[in-house]
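Q: I'm writing up a methods section and want to include an example of the input and output format. Could you take the sequence below and give the corresponding predicted structure tokens, formatted cleanly so I can copy it straight into the document?
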Amino acid sequence: MENFINFNNISLAESIAKFENGLKPYTSKDFVYIYLESDAPKNRLLLRNTIQKNGSLKTILVSGNKNLAELAWNANVFHFLHLSNNSLFPAITLLKDRMMAHYDSQEIPKKLKIPFKGGMDVIDTREICFCIGEGNYTTIFLTSGIKKTVTLQLNILEKKLCISPDFQRIGKSFIVSIGRISKIKENSVYFSTDKEPLKLNISDLYITRLKKAIMWY
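A: Here is the clean output for your methods example:
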């Protein structure tokens, strides 16, 4: 069972696996389940490595400790499967409800094609950290550290990217890649990149909206 990490209780992993077919109608993603008992440094490291390898949208943290929801929030995990008194069915039902809310949409295209006079920009959507719109122009910040300014209103870009929960429109001027967020501190949002993290400074209001967009539990 390659998609079950740190499960000492094999019967628990097998029980969760039985419910997986029932979750398939709500998403095409193949989930990775990671079991943690406590908010220990080694568990934080294990969770972080799992997310970096598989992505936050594909990671489900399983625990009997509801306080680990805070750990999931800090690690930008979208799904937390809380097992109360080893009662699996109610927890799976709650997880299904969250998935229905998050995945009732299409998959974003892997390539974003933006035509301009005499040519076309082709951008890998997986490399987008965030976008800032200003009038008829939008600047797209990539994981490579490169930023591209394209002749495209943010409203148009929103229709191309925000058809899935991977991207969220935050206020009038911003679109952010939820899966690329590595930390939120005060008024700064940090995005993981191939080099140094990218930082986006936004207002208190937008920070609150962003947290609401990704705080699933």
